[in-house]
Specification:
six-stranded mixed sheet, globular
Length: 271
Amino acid sequence: MNRGANGSGVNGSGANGSGTAADTDRAGAAGESASLAVEGLVAGYGEVIALDDVTVAAGAGGITAVLGANGAGKTTLLRAVSGMIKTRRGRILLADHDVAGRSPEQIVRAGIAHVPEGQGVIPELTVEENLRIGMMSWRRGPRADRVAALEEEYARFKPLADRRRKLASTLSGGERQMLVIARALLARPRVLLLDEPSLGLAPRVMAQVMDTVVRLSREHGLTIVLVEQNARSALAIADHGFVLNLGRVVASADAATLAADVALRHHYLGF
């Protein structure tokens, strides 16, 4: 189900910040397109350079796949964009505003939400308590707005509605993945970073997660950056793709072209 060229414009939600510089980036965000561009990014851990002059771009309202073998730098790229690790050089442009060097909280308020690898729920909290964490960046406002936002996610992920009072530790792997995606969406992002959302899931559940990703892009206009070890599945739903190897971009093309490149698949994508 390859979607071809870059998706249409985003119908993004407004920011819910706390008056920081990041809030300026989101002024008038409703109805605007949001694209993400990483330019000349250098980042790493200690003395190790994990990203070396990486330049990638995600078109507004589309799905961009970031592919490569283990250790290629995919997860590091998302961590750098979301502020989880400090960048050493380069720019991270959200709709032409540079957010490089800002804190994770400021980047969330600017409009970028990150779903890390590993279904990072807090097992000691209920489903609803986990979801409310996603609204921590909101300004204070009517309680009805928060209730409505929660109900919107329960409607999107119906299994969560039936378990809203249950501890997150009781959820299946697929339900945990729904929970972390729903929690990220409650931050009202314009760009959603997804790190290995199908990891450890049964094929049927993985297909459901990928279908959700497509709907978020097509129906809600989210700009999505998808890191996936399963390159075949990622390219089946993506518009465009980048391939990383040892911290550098080695290929960039529309998803259909990458999927059809036999040499690229053999050397970097594993299928």
